[in-house]
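Dear colleagues,

As part of the handover before I leave the project, I'm documenting each prediction I ran so the next person doesn't have to rerun anything. This entry is a single chain, and its sequence is reproduced below.
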Amino acid sequence: MSDPQRTYAVTHADIAAAAARIAPHVLRTPVIPAHAVSGLAGREVAFKCESMQRTGSFKIRGATNAVRSIADRDATRGVVTHSSGNHALALATAAAERGMPAHVVMPANASPTKRAAVERAGAAVVTSGNSGAEREAAAAEVQARTGATMVPPFDHPWVIAGQGTIALELLEQLPEAATLVVPVGGGGMISGIAIAARGVRPDIRIVGAEPELAGDAEESKRTGRISPQRPPVTIADGLRTALGELTFPVVRDLVDSIALVSEDEIIAAMRLVFLQERLVIEPSAAVGVAAILAGRVGGPLDRPTVCVLCGGNADLARLPWLTAG
């Protein structure tokens, strides 16, 4: 494995500094046993419950680190981003708490529930096309017009460092963890987690989990070059983006493998967590659970596997096992 201290845009020290910076503003989320999943998978599984985090997802970590890192002279112009929902809500919330304006570009196919939450948080929302290129172009226009600081949803050192604080917490809470399973979209979370975890436990196994319909990260790791975003059709709307220039090298070098799961497997895993683990999660968070249940994670069976439940912002009026077909 490459040395995360020397090679990447974020170091273990950056993540430790982010942990101190965001501590007053985010929750230390619990690590809890996943009894039903453990029984079905034949291995000890625990959940790192970022679904219980403020704003309902891990994204508040990176957003808060970014907002709290902006110099006072730039803060009055606010922040701008493009996001399908969770990063948008997190950045709007973090900006409001510092008294900064937030401008958010959201694709037309974003969840109406998530868009409404972003608007309630006080952000000015701009609608764009659904592709990553369309979202980025619209955000660049807003930035040029307002002078706001761009805070991308994943491919930025402040954001990656904030997300990496998840690993510092969970390895304090469950130091004997052998395998970490992390959903992959743009790679900000798994990159931060990989750098942080390898800095504490170089031997730990790190597995990404990705929908088959958005399998660009798996292809990128397999081919050694960034693959483009797939059509944004997977139910796991938070994982529809492709890896970025900063996140790809970390995934390439520090992530052991990426497991692909089908839409049916995602829905079944989400339903299981709702009904048997009694936890509210969104489809993106179910992707890691699906990979474990499908036996695609590997690693030792006699030591804990920790699955990061990345978000809990499910549309309860449209649960997929009730609306499928």
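The longest strand covers residues 205-211. Strands lie at 31-33, 45-49, 79-82, 102-107, 124-128, 149-150, 179-183, 205-211, 257-261, 305-309.

All the best with the project,
I.
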